[in-house]
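Record type: monomer structure entry
Structure origin: computed from sequence
Chain ID: A
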Amino acid sequence: MGEAILGRSGAEERRSMALLVEGKAGFVTRPDEVQALVERTVATLGSLDYAVNNAGIAVHKELTDVTPEEFDRVIVINLKGVFLGLKYAIPAMVEAGVARSSTWRRSPD
């Protein structure tokens, strides 16, 4: 089970709000679902002030027994899920004024 916690905190911490969305861990690998989650959060709460990328899985067996498919699933959920979460959350947080623009810069040759 994966979970994404997206939320908004107001000027008064007592009035802070959070939206908890639970689903299958695999959803974090689908860009359309991650984008929709961010959009739904902004529509519900008015802005996105923070995001916690907390979906992850593990294979509990000897490394020599892990199949390439199991390894690929771990990598896709644990890495691509974080990438997609940030890809769609950062613009919403920039819009809310709580984050600065994030750019991938080409390193000098």
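Annotation 1: The chain has one domain: 2-96.
Annotation 2: The chain is about 40% helix and 15% strand.
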